[in-house]
Each structure stands twice: as structure tokens, then as C-alpha cells.
């Protein structure tokens, strides 16, 4: 398949700060200025303006904030935004489809509803769909050394940027100019052990007459954090230990006693393997099986390069180019090597020696294969983007224009260890045929099951599948802005744009999976697709009367895919009223849309398994509470089957907001904004956990004729109750995308800043940002009751979030204390809410001289780890909190040049 480079429509889309003076004028600790600030393009509009404040609230994170507030990178800063309330599975979540990627979820609407831009241009999607379902942008490959600022607009912005901007827009703005060379070295670790990291950054640039250049190189190394590195989750407690070796008579459901065999394996899994006796009999087991093979932080090695150049062709024309390349290698472990007899069939065989149907199983330990990391999964990713264009002033006018071509490509190669097709014969000997029911016949030697493996034997039954995935996008865009005509209250400013683009993706699994090379019969098909798009847009800034301005925008986007087209017209309108110089009142309303995710459209039959599953129906039927239920948090979880749908409609969004900004002086400002976002025809795959919960409710006293119950029960495929093996257990869960009825969220954002300037004690700067979701409601099908998601214990999104900081600048010292309060979230069992938690970061920056800066940062100063034992191992709220504990870094920056 021919690969086309692309990038995103930029046109005037991004916020290209026109000069560093604008950045300092907007910096929160800057002193008041008397000269009018230069016009800048602010995210959410293509019309340059003199003020960051507009009809929609825009949050700014500067490169300096990333350092002082203890953020490790751009993603870390964005994930801690108060507006980022949604639960996401990132690189450190564990068993996820995207362990080498990180994303955010503004307003809890999912990662695919936040548009991420780099200098106003789109980036290629991560080639693997988030949770196997939706497309998203990876935030892990942006070098923080060249970050000028990050602007975040919450709310619909499709009338300016097109599809995806339903929950908001994140615009990452890179530096345009620098001189000399900065060398930055950073290293740190954790006080509890494991998870250390190191970073080297080189950033420089120079001017050569009319040519300005900038480059940056970033090299990062991060060690993994294993479950065994944290005592509280290094072993499973309060539940039956995991089987290491088992032999079961399938007809009776009883284990065959292993005798003294477990004693010979006692040193496995760090000396924790013992003979365990349960109601069904005895087997060899260890409480450390799962924790031993589980990383809670991925191993990562990445190299990121960025370069840009601007050439002043004439006083009115500038040529520009910029390129970004990132290479990332990640490795994690979420499941060790295990074997179950005849796993590609029904899981059991006819033992000709014992004259019984038996199921044998073996979990292979790190001591047998040369260490747990021998079974790591790994990913080699490459992300690149290129933008070239020309910008300047249209001759004979004051209008500014830009014409640009942008391209972005993302490639990912995954390496997954898999059992080979010969593994059954390794443990059971030669296959002797099939019985009348098609069950395999073996005459195995029990000693083979009991014998420990050597690394060479393990290598003989284990291989590695290699999958190749890629996505790309390219855009050709032209835009212009300027004054159109004058009204009594001032000039009317216009911006126009035209865009043409194409994007595509492909997921190519290892062809040997379908050729019988590995111990699997599950087919794995190639998934691929492309789509074209074009757009036309216009925006106007209209001074209605003195102190009252309006902004209106409209855009038409048309997508062509899967043999059909889908066009959407979106608009937004905003008002800004300044009844006094210090007070701004604002309001906005916008429509937005999202074209169906390409993965949802083109997905071939996909299969896999969930990291863990809870069979709520069997727990309820057995009368067992979730925290001790035999069917809760079973790992690995249920298998699933997923397919795409080419008939999906585009999602339709509406958002509105009301707000006020009060700035009585250069040292104090406060803002309050109310926001409301609604999505109709939401495209979604139901989560397996929700399906299983709904199934239990439906089967036990529910209305089996309701739309949800009918749909849910059809998706959960179970073995018959009369099955010889695993009667009544979940066989597979069928998921496919649908246009759900609707979802809506509303809330408030509050921000404040106060600067105290003293003669003797320096400058004190306090900042606070708070976001609270007031309502969150959804309806899956039109006939369903409206669900209150805030009270829903299946909804892991945060209800509120607070960030506050205190910075003290005096002389060559800058000291910052940063506080983060996380609101309540449901516990792992979904039975109650966990209490809010506050974490504190601290940093000290010291200027040794004009060239050298030394800083020390400590995250989670008080070494807190949020406990949660309700759902069992790993005993902390995965995804919402980290088990890392206190982390510390030392950073040194040296400047070469003037």
C-alpha cells in the first residue's frame, strides 16, 4: 500500500505566537505593560487578537510550568489538567491495547473527542485503537525542551478545526526561535525502589541573515516498575493462590493429587510454590504468579528530534518548514507463559492411561526461562511529521495569508511472545488421534508435567509474533485573515480557510498466526482503510457596539469513506462584553461533530481477551460477595470478538458556556466559567465490565424484554450448563460499534492568580484551578432510562479536581509547592466511592550563574499510595492513581552562547 505523508490542516489554525514578547506579556508572573500587546492567534479562533481572553476559556501551560510543577513531560502536564476528568488506560495501566501510548479525556468524553494539534496541525493517529475501539493521538512523543506553551480550549470547536473537537482542543505550540545551545541533563528515581529514569536534551538555534533555525534532540531512558517492587502488591492475599501445576479429571471436576511433586518445585516464583488443597482437590500453587509477571510502569527508551527553519524571502513573504521525528521502544509484562492442554479445542483430552477426560495446566516460572523479562512484550514505534509552507502579507493589503502542506506518519511494530503449535506434544507426547466426540487422545507421562523446564526447552516451545501497524494523514491548507470593512464600533475582521486531506491506517498481524505456527486457532485478519476529506470555513470578529464584540464561525466538512460520503456544517458564536476595563463577561455556543472512527468502520473480525473479568452473574447466583467471589477479577479475563460497522453515522455535538473574568490589577485575576456539552449518536463499544454487570442485573430479577437486556444477553456467549468442561462459564463477549442515543456533561471551571511583590522577601505567586462536573447523564438506547453517570459506580471518571501552587521567587532562587486534589472515584469492586486524595509536589530552581541552572523536584512529597483492596489484587485504583510513591529528580541546564 502506498504511504502518503500528511499532517494537519494548519492554515492559520494553530497559535503561532508571533514573538516572545507575547509570551512574556501573557505569563502570569509578568508585570503590567503599557504598550499594546502584539496580536496572536489563540486556540479556537483563526483571527489574531491582542488578548488571550475571548468568548471561550483557554487554559495555558508554559514550558516553565512543566518544570516548576514537577511534570515529567507534556503528557504528564496535560493529564493533570483539572479539565482532564476522564479515566484513561495509559502506558502504565497494565494490559492495554496501547502500552506505548498516552492520552487524555477532557470532560470524561473519551480520548477520541479531544483534538490534539502540534503548532495548529493535526498529527497521525496512534495506529492501534484505544481499547481496541477508538482512534486517538499519542501524547508521548513531544519533546518538552522546545515547548513554548500548551493551550487547551474546552468545548466544541469543529467550526474552526473540523471533526474531533467535541470535548476540546489541545494545541501544543513549539518555540520558533532560540540562540546558542542548551544542554539539559535530568535523572531521578523512586524512594521505594524501581522505576528510575534519565533524560538528556540538546536545544539550540541561530540566525543566519534572513534564516532562523531551531533544533532539539531528546533522549530518554525509563526503567520498568514491577509489582514485586512494591511490597503491598507483590503477592495476592486473601484468595486462593494461582495454579502453577494442575491435573484435573474433567468428568468429576476434581484435581488429581500431585503427591510430593510440589516440594520439588518449591523454589519457583521466589520460593513461594506449595501444595494447595481446595474443595476440588490439590494442586501446586503460588500467590506470586500474577504479581511476578506484571509491570505497573513500562520500560521505555525514546529519542525525539525536532527542527524548524524560517526564511524571510521578502519583507512580506516567509518560507517555513518544520519536522518532528520520534523513535520509541517500550516493553511491559502483564502475563507470564502458561499452558493448558488442548487450549485450541475444548481444553481437555482423553488420557489413554487413566481412561478419563483430563485437563492439564502448567504456569512456567521466571526461574525456568531466565527471568520474568524473558516474556516481555515490546513495541518499536516511529512517529514523524513534516510541514512546509509560505506565509506573509497579501500584496496591496493588510491581509495575512498562509499556504501549507503537512504530513504525519506513525508506525508501530509489536513483538508478542506466543506458545508454538508443538507445546501440547511437549507436555503430552504424540497425539494418538480423536475419539468419537472429536476429543484428542494422548497417553502422557505425568513426570513430564511435574518436571521443571530449562531455558532451552522453553525456547523450543515459544516463539514471537510480529505485527506491523501504521497510520498517516496529510493536509493541504490555505488560509487568510484581515480587516474586511469598518463599523461604527470598529473594524470587522475575517478569516477564511480551505483544506483538502486524506488519511489512512492498516493493522497487519503476523501471517503465521493463521498458518498454524502458533498454538492458536483464532484468526487474525488485516484491518485497513482510508478516507478523504475537504473543508471550507469562514470566521468573523464583529464589534457590535463599544465594549461588546461578537465572534461567529461556520465550516463545512465532507468525508468520503467505505463507498459513501458524510458532510457536516458546524457553527459557533460567541459574545464578549466588557462593562468595565477590569471585567469581561463572555458566552458561547457551538455545534461540533466527529466522523466515525476509522477503526469502527473498517475493523475486521478482531479477537482478544480482557486483562481480567468479573462474572457478576455467577457471583450473584452463588451468593458470594464480590470481594471474596471465586469468579471476580479472574485473570486472564473473558475472550471477546469485535467487528466494525460501515453504517455508522457521525456523532453530533453541542456545547455552550457562560463565564466571567475579573482582573482588577496586574497582580490579581479570577475567572468562573460554566460549560455544557452534549453528544447525540455517540459511537461506542460497550465495556465488557458494563455488559457483565448489566447481564447480571437482567438475569436476576431484571426486565428481560428491555432494549438493554435483549442486547446485553445476546452479546454474552456462555458454555451450556451441561458442558463437560467449564459449564456455564463465559465463552466470549461480542462487541461491535453502535450509535448510542446520547450523553451530556456540564460543570464549572474556576481559576485564580494572585501576585504579592515585596522589597525584602521577593515575589510570591499563587495560582489555583478547579473543575467540577455538575451533571453527567447518558442513554444507551432510545428506549432506556436516563442514567445518572455521576452516581454510577461503573463510571471511573473524576467528579472534581483541584490544582493549586505557591511559587516564591527571590534572587536566584525559585521555589514551588504544587498541590493536586483528586475527587472521589468508585472503588475497584464498584461498590462504593473512594475518598478524595491530595498529593503534593515540590521543586527548587537555582540559577548558579547566567549560564547554569540547577533544579530539584520531588513528586508525591509525602509518599502516598492510594489503597483499594475492594477488587482484590493489585490493591490500588489502577488508572486513577499510581503505585509509584515518592519520586525525585535532579536537573542541570547549561547554556552555551551569548
From TrEMBL:
GO terms for cellular component: cell outer membrane. Pfam families: Plug, TonB_dep_Rec_b-barrel. InterPro entries: Beta-barrel_TonB, Beta-barrel_TonB_sf, Plug_dom, Plug_dom_sf, TonB-dep_rcpt-like. It is found in: Cell outer membrane. Keywords: Cell outer membrane, Membrane, Receptor, Signal, TonB box, Transmembrane, Transmembrane beta strand, Transport. Residues 1-27 form the signal peptide. Residues 53-169 form the TonB-dependent receptor plug domain. SUPFAM superfamilies: Porins. Residues 328-861 form the TonB-dependent receptor-like beta-barrel domain. It is a multi-pass membrane protein. PANTHER family: PTHR47234, TONB-DEPENDENT RECEPTOR. Belongs to the TonB-dependent receptor family. This is TonB-dependent receptor. It comes from Rugamonas rivuli.
Amino acid at each position: 500500500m502506498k504511504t502518503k505523508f500528511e499532517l494537519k490542516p494548519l492554515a492559520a489554525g494553530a497559535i503561532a505566537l508571533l514573538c516572545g514578547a507575547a509570551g512574556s506579556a501573557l505569563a502570569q508572573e509578568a508585570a503590567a505593560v503599557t504598550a499594546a500587546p502584539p496580536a496572536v492567534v489563540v486556540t479556537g479562533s483563526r483571527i489574531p487578537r491582542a488578548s488571550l481572553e475571548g468568548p471561550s476559556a483557554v487554559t495555558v501551560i508554559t514550558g516553565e510550568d512543566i518544570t516548576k510543577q514537577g511534570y515529567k513531560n507534556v503528557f504528564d502536564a496535560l493529564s493533570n489538567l483539572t479539565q482532564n476528568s476522564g479515566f484513561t488506560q495509559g502506558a502504565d495501566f497494565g494490559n492495554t491495547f496501547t502500552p506505548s501510548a498516552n492520552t487524555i479525556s477532557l470532560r470524561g468524553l473519551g480520548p477520541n473527542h479531544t483534538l490534539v494539534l502540534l503548532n495548529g496541525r493535526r498529527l497521525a493517529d496512534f495506529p492501534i485503537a484505544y481499547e481496541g475501539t477508538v482512534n486517538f493521538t499519542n501524547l508521548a512523543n513531544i519533546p518538552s525542551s522546545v515547548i513554548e506553551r500548551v493551550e487547551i480550549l474546552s468545548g466544541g470547536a469543529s467550526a474552526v478545526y473540523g471533526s474531533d473537537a467535541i470535548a476540546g482542543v489541545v494545541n501544543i505550540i513549539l518555540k520558533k526561535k532560540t540562540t546558542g545551545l542548551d544542554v539539559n541533563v535530568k535523572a531521578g528515581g523512586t524512594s521505594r525502589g524501581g522505576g528510575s529514569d534519565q533524560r538528556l536534551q540538546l536545544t539550540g538555534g541561530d540566525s543566519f541573515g534572513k534564516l532562523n533555525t531551531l533544533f532539539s534532540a531528546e533522549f530518554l531512558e525509563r526503567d520498568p516498575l514491577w509489582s514485586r517492587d512494591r511490597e503491598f502488591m507483590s503477592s495476592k492475599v486473601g484468595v486462593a493462590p494461582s495454579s502453577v501445576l494442575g491435573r484435573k479429571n474433567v468428568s468429576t471436576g476434581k484435581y488429581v493429587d500431585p503427591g510430593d511433586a510440589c516440594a520439588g518445585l518449591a523454589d519457583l516464583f521466589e520460593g513461594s510454590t506449595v501444595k494447595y488443597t481446595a474443595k476440588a482437590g490439590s494442586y501446586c500453587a503460588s500467590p506470586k504468579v500474577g504479581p511476578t509477571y506484571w509491570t505497573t510502569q513500562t520500560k521505555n527508551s525514546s529519542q525525539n528530534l525536532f527542527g524548524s527553519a524560517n526564511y524571510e524571502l521578502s519583507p512580506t513573504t516567509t518560507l517555513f518548514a518544520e519536522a518532528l521525528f520520534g523513535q520509541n521502544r517500550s516493553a511491559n509484562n502483564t502475563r507470564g507463559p502458561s499452558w493448558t492442554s488442548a487450549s485450541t479445542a475444548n481444553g481437555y483430552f482423553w488420557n489413554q492411561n487413566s481412561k478419563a477426560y483430563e485437563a492439564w495446566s502448567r504456569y512456567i516460572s521466571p526461574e525456568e526461562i531466565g527471568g520474568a523479562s524473558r516474556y516481555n512484550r515490546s513495541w518499536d514505534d516511529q512517529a514523524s511529521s513534516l510541514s512546509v509552507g509560505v506565509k506573509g502579507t497579501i500584496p496591496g493589503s493588510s491581509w495575512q495569508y498562509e499556504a501549507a502542506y503537512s504530513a504525519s506518519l506513525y508506525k508501530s511494530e509489536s513483538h508478542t511472545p506466543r506458545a508454538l503449535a508443538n507445546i501440547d506434544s511437549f507436555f503430552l507426547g504424540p497425539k494418538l488421534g480423536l475419539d468419537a466426540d472429536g476429543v484428542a487422545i494422548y497417553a502422557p507421562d505425568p513426570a513430564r508435567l511435574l518436571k521443571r523446564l530449562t531455558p532451552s526447552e522453553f525456547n523450543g516451545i515459544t516463539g514471537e509474533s510480529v505485527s506491523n501497524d501504521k497510520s498517516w494523514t496529510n493536509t493541504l491548507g490555505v488560509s487568510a485573515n484581515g480587516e474586511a470593512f469598518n463599523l461604527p464600533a470598529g473594524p470587522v475582521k475575517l478569516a477564511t480557510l480551505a483544506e483538502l486531506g486524506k488519511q489512512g491506517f492498516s493493522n497487519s498481524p503476523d501471517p503465521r498466526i493463521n498458518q498454524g505456527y502458533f498454538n492458536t486457532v483464532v484468526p487474525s485478519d488485516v484491518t485497513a482503510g482510508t478516507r478523504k476529506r475537504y473543508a471550507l470555513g469562514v470566521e468573523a470578529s464583529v464589534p457590535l457596539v463599544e465594549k461588546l464584540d461578537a465572534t461567529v464561525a461556520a465550516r463545512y466538512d465532507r468525508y468520503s469513506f467505505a463507498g459513501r460520503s458524510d458532510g457536516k456544517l458546524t457553527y459557533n458564536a460567541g459574545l464578549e462584553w466588557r462593562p468595565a476595563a477590569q471585567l469581561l463577561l463572555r458566552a458561547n455556543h457551538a455545534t461540533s461533530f466527529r466522523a466515525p472512527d476509522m477503526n469502527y468502520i473498517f475493523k475486521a473480525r478482531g479477537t482478544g481477551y480482557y486483562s481480567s473479568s468479573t462474572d457478576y452473574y455467577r457471583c450473584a447466583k452463588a451468593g458470594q460477595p464480590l470481594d471474596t467471589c471465586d469468579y471476580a477479577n479472574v485473570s486472564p479475563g473473558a475472550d471477546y470478538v469485535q467487528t466494525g460497522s460501515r453504517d455508522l453515522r457521525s456523532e453530533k455535538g453541542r456545547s455552550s458556556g457562560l463565564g466571567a473574568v475579573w482582573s482588577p490589577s496586574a497582580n490579581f485575576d479570577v475567572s468562573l466559567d460554566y460549560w455544557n456539552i452534549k453528544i447525540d449518536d455517540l459511537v461506542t463499544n460497550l465495556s465488557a465490565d458494563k455488559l457483565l454487570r448489566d447481564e447480571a442485573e437482567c438475569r436476576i430479577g431484571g426486565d428481560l424484554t428491555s432494549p438493554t437486556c435483549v442486547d446485553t444477553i445476546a452479546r454474552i456467549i456462555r458454555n451450556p450448563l451441561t458442558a463437560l468442561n467449564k459449564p456455564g462459564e463465559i465463552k466470549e463477549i461480542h462487541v461491535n460499534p453502535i450509535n448510542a442515543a446520547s450523553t451530556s456533561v456540564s460543570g464549572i471551571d474556576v481559576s485564580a492568580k494572585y501576585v504579592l511583590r515585596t522589597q525584602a522577601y521577593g515575589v510570591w505567586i499563587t495560582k489555583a484551578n478547579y473543575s467540577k462536573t455538575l451533571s453527567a447523564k447518558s442513554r444507551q438506547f432510545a428506549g432506556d432510562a436516563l442514567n445518572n453517570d455521576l452516581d454510577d459506580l461503573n463510571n471511573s471518571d473524576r467528579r472534581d479536581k483541584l490544582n493549586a501552587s505557591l511559587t516564591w521567587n527571590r534572587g536566584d532562587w525559585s521555589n514551588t509547592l504544587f498541590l493536586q486534589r483528586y475527587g472521589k472515584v468508585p472503588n475497584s469492586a464498584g461498590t462504593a466511592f473512594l475518598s478524595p486524595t491530595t498529593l503534593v509536589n515540590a521543586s527548587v530552581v537555582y540559577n548558579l550563574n547566567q549560564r547554569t541552572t540547577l533544579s530539584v523536584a520531588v513528586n508525591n512529597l509525602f509518599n502516598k499510595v492510594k489503597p483499594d483492596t475492594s477488587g482484590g489484587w493489585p490493591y490500588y485504583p489502577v488508572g486513577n492513581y499510581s503505585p509509584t510513591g515518592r519520586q525525585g529528580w535532579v536537573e542541570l541546564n547549561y547554556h552555551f552562547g551569548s
